[in-house]
Amino acid sequence: MNKYEMVLIVKAGLEDEERQQVLERLQDAINQNGSVENIDDWGTRKLAYEINYNKEGYYYVINYEADPSVVAEVERRARILDQVLRYLTVKKED
Questions:
Q1: Residue 30: left (phi > 0), alpha (psi -120 to 50), or beta?
Q2: pTM as predicted
Q3: Which helix (H) or strand (E) segment is 90 a member of?
Q4: DSSP code of 68?
Q5: What are phi and psi of 24, to 5 degrees?
Q6: Which SS3 state, helix, strand or coil, does residue 94 take?
């Protein structure tokens, strides 16, 4: 199993419950064949440029350990969620 780090930017105007639902959907995908190590909540930050008319985003950093096939599923789920503005997953070196 490999270690990964995912930076997730969701719309800043969402309620806390909606943001939690987004995180839960991604955690479900990770927990099928891996485990979430921790989730850092960075809060609302100004974006470098507008994304779909949004000037601010709510940032999360998710560290997890999983098989490479899980990454594709997590990114697929992030891609289809309307609340997600951007995401980036990188493999961490040991």
A1: alpha
A2: 0.87
A3: strand 84-91
A4: H
A5: -65, -40
A6: coil
Tell me the residue length of the chain.
94
- Helices and strands, counts by H and E, the chain: 2, 4
Sheet holding 2-11, edge to edge: 34-51, 54-66, 2-11, 84-91
48: number of Cβ within 10 Å: 6
Q: Three-class SS of residue 11?
A: strand
CA dihedral 46, 48, 49, 52 (to 10 degrees): -50
Task: Answer for the pair 34, 70: CB distance below 8 angstroms, yes or no.
Answer: yes
For residue 16, the cross-strand partners are: none
What is the chain's pLDDT, residue by residue, as a tens digit (94 residues)? 899 999 999 999 889 999 999 999 999 999 988 899 999 999 999 999 999 899 999 999 999 999 988 999 999 999 999 999 999 999 998 6
